Each structure stands twice: as C-alpha cells, then as structure tokens.
C-alpha cells in the first residue's frame, strides 16, 4: 500500500492566478535499496544522505556483510522518511533552464569507476547476497583503451521487434545462445552483460578520490541516456561478433506504437528460446496491451499510452534539463532528478514486465536483475530511440547539453574482443557516427496532444477568476478544500496554485518555463510508491494522461530526488 504523508508545501511565489492541480497516488514497483555493502566509518557531508557502505572489496574477493542494516539518520520508527523536491520553483528564464546553466558547471564530470574497487551491491533482498548480488566485472589483463568512433564499418539498422523476419530471429537466437554459453567470467557472457546494469545502477561503484564515499549511479540524472546508449552499443557488437555478422542490430520494443508494438514482442514469449525469461509477469502475453501509465489503477488504453508519450517527449520535455534530468557532478552526492522519459514510459515498462511472484518483481522490476531479461535490451533500445526522436521535434530548445561536465563524463565497457574501453558522453550524441540507426515506423503520438474538455463548472471557475478574483474562483469551485499536510493513500487531492504570470506571449513561453515545486514528501521506503501530478481546469473530473495536461508521473526509487514539472 502506498503511503505518502505530510506533503508540507505546494507553492510558487508571486503568483497572480490560480492553477488547479490534482495529485493522485497508487502503488507501484521498483523498491528502494535495503542492503548495504559494509558498514562505513567515514563521515557524511552535511545536507546529504550517504549510504552506510564501504566499497573497498576487491573484485576477486566478495565480502558479504553479515550484519543487519543499522538505522540511519532518516530511519524513524522503522519508516524511511525521504524528502523529494519536485521542480526548481517559480517562473524561470531561459538561462535558468538552459543547456549551459552555470550552476550545472560548478563541479567536474563524473569519471569512469575503478573496476577493482567494486563492491557487493546494496539493492537486493536479504538472504540473497552471495547468490545474486555480486555483479562486479572480471579484471582486465591490459590497460583500457579510449574509444574511437568507427570508420568504414557497415551501418547497423535496428528493426522494430514486431516486424522482424524469421531469418533475422534465427540469427538473434543463435547470437544470444552463444552469449549464454560463454564462461561466466568472460566479460562478453550474458551473465557479465547483465551484471553491468547491476554494478552501475545499484551501488557497486563509488566515486573515488574524495574524503567521503559518494555514490556512482546512472539513473535519475543527465547520464541516464548516454550510459544506456553505450551499454547497448557494446552488447550489440558482442552479439554480432558471436555470429560473425557486423551488420547485426538489436530489435527495439516499439511500445509507443499501437501498430503491433504496444505488447510484449512475440520473439520473447517462446519458452524454448534463449530470448525467454521465466521471471516475467505471467499475465503478460503478446496480446496484452502495455500499460505506459502503470500503477494508475486504470485499465490501460491506446489513447492513454499515446498521451503518456506526448507528454514525456513533446510537451513536457522542451529543454534538455527536462528531458535528460538533473546534473550529476563529480565530488557531489547525487541529488537525483530523472528526465521525463526515464520517469514515465521507461519505468512503467520495467514495472509492468516484472514478475509479481518474485519478492521484488524480478527480473525487469528491479535494477540489479533487469539485465537478466533479454527483453530489457530491446526495451532500452526504444528508450534510446526516444532520444533521437526528441532532437527532431520542432520548437522549444530540444538540444543536448553543451557543457563539459556532461560531455566528458566517462564509463568503462568491455568490447567484443574482451578489451576494456573508456567511453565518453560526447561520443554518444550521434548514432549515425556510432554506426547504427533505427528503422523508421509511424509515430502517432507526435500529434496526440491532450485536449481536455471545459465543463460548465470549469467555465464558471474561469469566469470567476477573471472578474471576481481568486476568492470568487475558490467559491465557485465546489467540494472540500485540501489543507497541509496532505496524506495520500490511494486517493486524489486537488489544490489551487497561483501562476506567476497570465496571458504569456509565444516569446514568453520560448524564453521562460513554468515549473512547480512540491516538497516535504515523506514515504515508506519499504513500500511501492507512485503518484501523478496533473494540471487541469476541472478539479473533480476523472483525469488521465489522455484527457488532461499531465505534468509528471513520479515513482520515487531513491532519496533526494529532484524533478522538474512543466506547465503544458
């Protein structure tokens, strides 16, 4: 049961007109971490929660922690109290949300981790440490090399999974079969490839060279897209090399397309295929409609899914800071804030696919295990495709960041020759230069802007706002008013929030973005939590992404999350 208590404030400063807001909560998956690597004696920086781990075990000597997790500074009566800040507040000029925000350039780029200082991840259930969580890579016998963009290689074309040919499918199955047959300590093996996600996403690595231990995680920040792009890049090259086919390309799970894509691809449903994973939701078949608004409590629909896509990629992501997420800088404990696609359809598909019979909805429903499902890589291929699509949408400021801290962020991956390669974000911005593209298909959600109907009641409120002021508007709105603190328990609350400026011109909208701040959010970290925030002109109406101006779907999966909400 989701429990969100004490939404202590919900405001914008210097507002002149009310903004009706609806918050709906429900349960979802992707639980937060509970198991530390090892108790740490190091100090914590003020103002940040630092996981109580010491990540100093060598990759050949796993040392599971025998102790139970000790109460941390935010463990109150067994409940993890975590604050989440939604938005950055107020009405911001272009400089505040620009691609060269000086505040985002005050530190240094995240550098690749030291693979020999990889520890047991802290994201798995108790009792599973030795069996499942040691996901550190094998040691390289030679120094790493720096990545160079390929030249003279054939262009790989990633096809939509629902349209692959029988010949292609047989090649893919053979490649994955051979990958599964490799020794488990071979960095090209399926086990090691799956463990990449575990180590990078679940606390296997720490930032080095700082007086306190700092997390190195690739979710909920601006490195989410480039990290996963590189991850798939090498996974794809390894598969191609195992069948001696340099043109082999991963299929993408086209879950944004109702033309055969909004279901689990049938290529993953054959129990006798190496593409099959038994730890998936048994209720999902190749005819089950995917739920891109998973956890809403509503039956999924094509219209709802298209609304989620429009909001995540078009109306809610007009700037890099909204699409990619918050900066993650070296020397700082991450105050994580994911972008619109990561928090929306990306997470929804993970949760929808995970097996509810497992303790933590493994495989797809948990970071440490997600890479064990072959469908994961096709899912993330479509996520990666969204990055390409986003940059082609006209209007707005849909351009990647240009500051050094993002461009010079680096990671390590093993290539198809078992060579350790250092890669940087700056080399991942153009898939054509990397040697692959996506097969074109229809994108119907590009034209699916939600069109909420103005009911008689909404018109009455709008009239009162214009001629009678805020007080009259409040009187015109029927139903009980919400007061702080708010408690969400599978329920909906509605608030009026003043806007900083009315009747904004087209130029105003290009230069400024309205963002909303919600802070003081507390929830039980042991439970699944999901809530949606909407803008609507009708406060009592049954709303959803297909019928209203949705801002964001939030699924808290770690503490210190920051999310920007944009007025659509």
Question: Would you give an account of this structure?
Answer:
Helix 7 packs antiparallel against helix 9 (375-390). The chain has a four-stranded antiparallel beta sheet with strand order 16-3-20-21. Mean pLDDT is 75; it is low at 1-106, 466-480 and 555-568. The chain has 568 residues and is an alpha+beta fold. A hairpin with a 5-residue loop joins strand 12 (410-414) and strand 13. The chain has a domain at 108-447: di-copper center containing domain from catechol oxidase. The protein has 13 helices and 22 strands.
Key features?
13 helices; disordered C terminus; 4-stranded antiparallel β-sheet; Tyrosinase copper-binding domain-containing protein; 568 residues; disulfide bond; alpha+beta; disordered N terminus; 3-stranded antiparallel β-sheet; 24% helix
Secondary structure layout plus pairing:
Elements: E1 4-7, E2 9-11, E3 17-26, E4 75-76, E5 79-80, E6 84-86, E7 91-92, H1 129-133, E8 145-146, E9 156-158, H2 166-181, H3 190-201, E10 206-207, E11 214-215, H4 224-242, H5 302-315, H6 320-323, H7 340-353, H8 367-370, H9 375-390, H10 404-407, E12 410-414, E13 420-424, H11 431-434, E14 436-438, H12 456-476, E15 486-488, E16 492-499, H13 506-511, E17 513-514, E18 517-519, E19 522-523, E20 530-535, E21 549-554, E22 561-563
Parallel strand pairs: 6-22, 8-13, 9-14
Antiparallel strand pairs: 1-15, 1-19, 2-18, 3-16, 3-20, 4-5, 7-17, 10-11, 12-13, 20-21
Helix pairs in contact: 2-4, 4-9, 5-7, 7-9
